[in-house]
Amino acid sequence: MARGLRKGLTSYGDEGFALFLRKAFIKAMGYSDDALDRPIVGITNTYSDYNPCHGNAPALVEAVKRGVMLAGAMPMVFPTISIHESFAHPTSMFLRNLMAMDTEEMIRAQPMDAVVVIGGCDKTLPAQIMAAASVDLPTVVVPVGPMVVGHHRGEVLGACTDCRRLWSAHRAGEIDEVEIETVNGRLAPSVGTCMVMGTASTMACITETMGLSLPMSATIPAPHAERLRLAEASGKVAAKLAVEGGPRPSDLLTPKAFRNAMVVMQAIGGSTNGIVHLAAIAGRTPHRFALQTLDEIGREVPVLVDLKPSGAHYMEHFHHAGGVPRLLAQLGDLVDLDAPTVTGATLREVVATAEDVPGQDVIRPRSAPIKAEGSMVVLHGNLAPGGAVLKQAAATERLLQHTGRAVVFDSVIDMAARIDDPDLEVTADDVLVLRNTGPKGAPGMPEAGYLPIPKKLGRQGVKDMVRISDARMSGTAFGTIVLHITPESAIGGPLALVRSGDMIRLDVAGRSIDLLVDEDELARRRADLPAGPVRPVPERGYARLYAQTVLQADEGCDFDFMVRKPDEAS
Ligand code: FES
Ligand code: MG
């Protein structure tokens, strides 16, 4: 098999000349023949001035390179798209598939025998793993790691659960202009990803559980020296894969691994976004992700990790308590420890090395869980024939069974215009409904599902209400919030039929979400819906591709033509 620079050579009749040309050009960078004759480990560089979460990426790249060279292979760094949550318009989710395609094609196009992908901010690890699954070259994932915590007035703060909580307090008039500015400088005190159990942390934990990254890679804080050593070790593993071969993504992304990922997602109080991303990753393999399985697993798996937003601590505390290996040890027979990892060791071997930290209370034993059931539930009903999700671990207990009057917003713009209107007819018992915020509707399924509490109710002390939408929600958010309603309203899902004043029933125990309007009336309303798409398909570019081919949330919002057919060869 062609290795190193010879990989993927096209001859056009003269392969020798192709190699001669490649070498001539690369020698312009000062490489020797000794360097160029070795197997190559590609390393993605996702540093960007627009992505503070990846602020440590250059240092990680250097450490990975060192590891690769120590193990006798040749590192080659190349750039790909980088996406940050706050700097991606219209939404980072809109760009995830673009990053997946970019990463996939650059791995395919350039000669490399293994690849290290370095990512972390919410959409980046999913995009990179989707790419890795499609290319199926040996891959080691290196997460950039979580930020360290901030402090304010003796309180520990974290991005961005506390961003929301303190901003709500500011909106309610409890925190003044000067203090909120001070808080602003303390919420994200270092580079790295949000240090609560948001989407970035969820994906990093899932990645480690599926064996795609090295043990402890999810939790070591971004600025710690230990993370650089992990990057160096990851480089060594990648070099070994490049030189000797070893597990490929297809060897790791097995039904066992997806099941383990779902168990861990439930046990950590993971982000609902993890569901969409896991479905997209599964779509790149011969296996599929079933919402129903996630719900069944959630009935058996307790929440064991006490992290915000469902609990009290932050990622660095999870790390010092033993991280994912300790969690897997506590989960015991709920996970399949025969699953392999990229180092060649099984999860069982990883668990055998898990640190047992005396007195830690961040990772609970099964005998004393945070919540007896898992963090996420899947709902069905006449409002969500294709399913919807709710993070019960971050919801208000008394609202889990609730029937209330709908207050409907037709779009994010409509909501922004009216939610704080003092004349808005709304009470704390109502159900806030937001639609046209799904994959095609917004587009890009923004994290608009965390509808703000109307200002006039916030000032009365209302902290939570039932809110439902076809949008997503940040994994760092808190509330009784029904998300990912499928099919979305923009393609005629039943959410399009709701009118203000209708009654909606949420029954989490019964796993249902229903619009209490009779069938005949719903049929009349359906006949009245405007024909054609709610939002015109854009004329050109990526936006057109997105609008035409994006799948619904239950299929991971990947593009329909990127999904692997069950019988397709890799
Ligand atoms: Fe990057 Fe939260 S904004 S992980
Ligand atoms: Mg997020």
Number of domains: 3
Number of strands: 14
Task: Name the bound molecules.
Answer: FE2/S2 (inorganic) cluster, magnesium ion
Q: Biggest β-sheet, characterized?
A: 8 strands, mixed
Overall pLDDT score: 95
Please give the radius of gyration in angstroms: 24 Å
Outline = globular
If strands are numbered along the chain, what order do they take across the biggest sheet? 7-8-12-11-10-9-13-14
CA-to-CA gap between the ends? Answer: 17 Å
Number of helices: 20
Question: What ranges have pLDDT less than 50 throughout 5 or more consecutive residues?
Answer: none
Helical proportion, percent range? 25-40%
- The chain-level structural class is alpha/beta
Share of β-strand residues = 5-15%
Family: Belongs to the IlvD/Edd family.
Domain Dihydroxy-acid/6-phosphogluconate dehydratase C-terminal: 361-557
Domain Dihydroxy-acid/6-phosphogluconate dehydratase N-terminal: 38-349
Keywords: Iron, Iron-sulfur, Lyase, Metal-binding
Keywords:
about 575 residues, alpha/beta, Glucose Oxidase, domain 1, 3 domains, 8-stranded mixed sheet, 4-stranded parallel sheet, 14 strands, globular, binds FE2/S2 (inorganic) cluster, binds magnesium ion, lyase, iron, iron-sulfur, Dihydro-acid_dehy_C, IlvD/Edd family dehydratase
